[in-house]
Amino acid sequence: MSTDDMPRTLVVIAHPDPGSLTHHVSQRLGAALRPGAVEVADLHREGFDPRFTPADRRAYHEGGGHPPDVLREQRRLDRATDLVLVFPVYWWSVPALLKGWIDRVFVSGWAFEYSAPAGVQPKLQRLTTHLLPVAGADAGAYERHGYGTALRTQLTHGLVDYVGSRRGVTAFVHDSEQPSTEATEATVDRAVRTVAAAVRVPASRP
Question: CA 52, 164, 1, 35 torsion: positive or negative?
């Protein structure tokens, strides 16, 4: 992990279209975070394979020997103080590409360890994780149906807490398909400013 005092942010994008709102949001976020150190992982452009392979399975059982693409992503995370996941919401969850990245990268022995006597031992306490979901529905629909709670449960509790990462902010871009570009841009601006401020002012970071 980076040892300097300045935050180093890894922005992970999971969308196949470089002209998408998801990419626009990530570009706005990168600009808002600079001149701080920012690294972007565009999973689709880089050709990350989300499939959990026989090699991943062997590494899980043998406790090492992870595939090179997994090791590369872990090194990126080791350099970061902050992780921001920028993704469109598909069926109230993350895209398969991002889910596969999580499945393959956040593995036992690196993200956490487990033993019968001690139970789960998280290993990513050095990292703060922020979520920037791009959602088609409005905030009211998410509140009424519990979609936001479900997404936070999957990611904040199921991933962030499990590996010991500090909880950052969750900033939704709701109503992403509304006809007014001005309204969409205002929503994007609020979400980007929320995440950028949290990275710059890490109140919980030792």
Answer: positive
Q: How many residues are recorded in the chain?
A: 206
How far is Cα 159 from Cα 168, in angstroms, rounded to an integer? Answer: 13
**15 phi, psi to nearest 5 deg:** -160, 135
| 172 contacts 148 by C-beta, under 8 angstroms | yes
Q: Where are the beta strands (DSSP E) in 43-111?
A: 82-88
pLDDT per residue of the chain (206 residues) written in tens, 0 to 9: 444 557 799 999 999 999 999 999 999 999 999 999 999 999 999 999 999 999 999 998 888 889 999 999 999 999 999 999 999 999 999 999 999 999 999 999 999 998 888 888 999 999 999 999 999 888 899 999 999 999 989 999 999 999 999 999 999 999 887 766 787 889 999 999 999 999 987 654 44
Amino acid identity, residue 193? R
Strands 128-134 and 119-122: unpaired
Rounded Cα gap, residues 86 and 106, in angstroms: 17
pTM: 0.91
